[in-house]
Amino acid sequence: MPLMVTDYTWTQTEWIVYIHVPLKGVKAGEVDIFCTDDYLKVHFHPFIFEAFLSEPIDDDKSTAKIGNGIAVFTLQKKEEGLWEHLVIDCDKETFRRIRERALEKACEKLAAEAKAKATKTQEERKYALEIMMKLEEEERARIQKMKDDEREKATAELEEWKLKQRQIAANKTQLKIQSQRIVTDKEIILEKTHAPKLSDGCKDEHGKYNGFSQWYIFGKEKQDCLPSPRLTGNIQVKFTPRIFPTALRESRVPEEEEWLQKQAKARRALNADLGELKNLTEEERNPHWLKDKGDKLFATGNYLSAINAYNLAIKLNREIPALYSNRAACHLKLRNLYKAIEDSSQALDLLTPPVAGNAGARARAHVRRGTAFCELELYIEGLQDYQAALKIDPQNKTLQADTHKIRQIIQNGALCHSD
């Protein structure tokens, strides 16, 4: 059973209540705090402090500071005034009901926060989708405008060429008429002087040109009949490279990019200087090979050897979350519960940001940490981890049953202790 902390002190003002709880030499990272508007619990193994407040507080505006071996709570009163007592004096049944009500409030608050977060995420996705569609629409409009401009330009050039062709044809007709008149007039003159016709060869008896050839008149004009070549160009179409299978408008680009950067960092760590591990074989220098070896040892029940394999793999690369999560599973089998909690927490830190690619690994890490908490009889903390895992995999029947079982243990007074 936990040991109750009774050597706490408290002071107050019209709007604020200050509570000082000694931590008995426990580190700040090992302190767990749970607070509602009428209930405050501080747990640091093997001690526990509970306060059933006589007046309601605003838990959202209240704060806690831990340091120098003491936890200082600044509680914001909902109503102005001085309290006669910090806590109420009731029987165990009343205390039990207050705990249950506090747990229900905490669950409702978590559910409301999750719903609000989901709503905000949905709105952000909707806004991002609208922006993306707007950008795509603008891009399509820009491309369509380019096509229309090119079409208008080509049409204008074609009309200009047709007009030029009509002018050339008119000039040809006029020149042809003029040349026919000239030839006719010269033939008449030559006929009167008994000279050869120019149309029969355009040369006189001495082999010299003394007339006009129709070919000579129109030959030069034919060079201007063809239009100039049209200008050509290319439109570059670039597609966004995607590693994740989701569409760009449906994905969480910043989170996925951060996750890919972490994976790249883990791969680069393989080339780091190994120091004292330089005598390892080529296989033993591969953390993924060591992970597979540890998994096989775990399957055969050799948990200590599996832990040694995971330890060596972590020395080679500290950025692989599966190593910490699997080592936590080994510590659970060996009842090293605090180490299991530490390894599971480290795995969850590496499994950020939460994306679809690491959902299964995050669910396993939450279950292993929640199991360790429940083995330490810290059922509220265990319930929070199981609820986080159930949120990732809501259709898992086993998770649903385990979460319901933990909730029943809490409601049946498993955390009750002596006054």
CATH topology type of the largest domain: Serine Threonine Protein Phosphatase 5, Tetratricopeptide repeat
Low-confidence segments, given as residue ranges, are 195-203, 208-223, 272-276
Major beta-sheet overview: 4 strands, mixed
* Share of residues in strands: 5-15%
Elements, N to C (H/E): EEEEEEEEHHHHHHHHHH
Shape, please?
Answer: elongated
Kindly state the number of beta strands: 8
Helix tally equals 10
**CATH homologous superfamily grouping of the largest domain:** Tetratricopeptide repeat domain
Strand order, biggest sheet?
Answer: 1-6-5-4
CA-atom Rg in angstroms: 44 Å
- Mean pLDDT metric: 80
Q: How does CATH name the architecture of the largest domain?
A: Alpha Horseshoe
Helix percent reads 40-55%
Distance linking N and C termini: 11 Å
CATH class of the largest domain: Mainly Alpha
Q: How many separate domains?
A: 3
Instruction: Please state the structural category.
Output: alpha+beta
GO molecular function, one term: nuclear estrogen receptor binding
Main location: other
Organism: Esox lucius (Northern pike)
Domain CS: 3-87
